[in-house]
User: Fold this.
Amino acid sequence: MCGIVGYVGGRPCKGILFEGLRKLEYRGYDSAGIGVVADGRVEISRSVGNLDNLELILSQVDDAGTTGIAHTRWATHGRPSIENAHPHTDCSGRFAIVLNGIVENYQELRAALQGEGHVFSSETDAEVVAHLIERAYRGSLQDAVVEAYRQMEGHFSYCAVTADEPEVIIGIRKETPLVVGVSEGENFIASAIPAFLAETRSVLFPDDGEVVVVSRDSVRVCTLEGDPVDRPAKTVDWDDEAAEKAGYETFMLKEIYEQPAALADTLAERIAPDGRVVLEGLGLTQEDFRGLERVIIVACGTSYHAGLIGRHALERWARLPVEVEVASEFRYRDPVIGPRCLCIGISQSGETADTLAAMRLARRRGAKVLALTNIVGSQATREADGVLFTRAGLEVGVAATKTFLTQVLAVLLFALHMGEKRGYLEAERVLGLTGKLRRIPTRLREYLESDAVRGVEQAAVRCASQRFFMVLGRNIGLPVALEGALKLKEISYVPTEAYAAGEMKHGPIALLEEGSPVLVVATDASIYDKLVSNVQEVRARGARVIAVASEGNEGIGEMADDIFLVPCTDEMLSPLFGVVPLQLFAYYVAKARGEKVDQPRNLAKTVTVE
Ligand code: F6R
Assistant:
């Protein structure tokens, strides 16, 4: 989820690229850099931290070059550092690249290139691209970029320049955005339109596997074989803010739609070809895996709900007792913790004060601590023995969506890994589950592009004037219900109660009256029949039932006023689908009520105070 921008034209490009980066800063900001082709070489300027640091460095650099590429980084492989910042160059410094995405087979490629004598200067996956181009170059940057592309696995887009062809930028994409800004006597290329919107509104959208050759007076799009592709530019009438939202009306909606990509990024390289889960940097030895007696998960809000899902998976697959604690409560208890205990702090920001305090307490009492976070370099990563990163990219909407889904995926991967390491999961079972996990990003994308979303929107509009919602779930569906209820509270301000469906009869059912809306999460196959009984109970009290069910269980629709069908998968993985219609439902209720979805009242994105 980095930002890239390139320029070729008649004007000095340093300032133009820098302004482009400013517009992309919302995508990531742990380091940044610019590469300008001038005087027979590519001049690279890079810095760590926000763009002000890069600006300082650039003020000392000549303004001669008119072709260049730039990058703002959201670290995935390698910590934020000057060496890991883009652009990356080959051994000779003649070629420079910027990349957005993940090269999944970079370790293999890197080892092969090192074996041939290539010298690497960063820890990133991206640097292999510069060396692959160097190896392939025989007088055509376009051919070398294609040859590199053919050897790379993963999802990415990248741009390359070389001192040998000073007036051209080559770009290419695979399942990762890349757009071209077309203008008079100058052209742009970027990961997102805001980068060049101030300069041109004429935009060309290359497809996956197409090469774009951008020079001062032309933009050519070709297939990998070099055949021309006719892709006329379109005019966009977005303003700056709309462009940052890539055409979505809010960041939250954009982020809901980014979930398939965020899941794919979080999965990348973590499933080996034989189906095993590979997680690095956990800070746990084989002895730890075998010797652990207990897990305590500490987190707040949405992250706490991801922890509840983690409990189900760790108990089922790794046979470990798990407690999940709200961090703000845990930190003031006198918990019994020993060295055979693992504390997992889940925090998308890695900066939530209560979660950090709970992790510190567990550590002081002898537990190993693992941080599960989205932010490289955050406080949680500095205080933990190991880290498991989600790779959701920057989340701007205050209500967490894509960070939640990637947290759920990460805890599931961790539980599978634990189950295997502890000897409770057979290879075949892991293979079956990881096979299902691999398919989830594509299936979720298909769901989000289907008419099902319109159905959720219509149901939300019908319910928008309700004064109260109840959300029921059971087993692994309960955390999904809790998360759906939190979304409703946060952005629509409608009082919402989430409850274990089996507990209804013990009190909350008294709240129901004719027409009370009750959402029921019925995606967990193991307790589907029980939920059907719960649906009948609430229906008998006149409630209006909205069921979230897996495809194949359409039958529940006969008892419900609305049914949101999601793709069917293993029950443990079902939250990855089940929560999405609830996010959308909350979104459309809030929208119908005219609320400001991205900045809900009284809430902050990161709670760094107690
Ligand atoms: C809800 C939400 C909050 C956060 C909570 C923890 O949509 O975003 O409930 O989940 O403040 O934040 P992190 O995960 O950054 O520790």
In short: The chain has a mean pLDDT of 93. The longest strand covers residues 95-103.
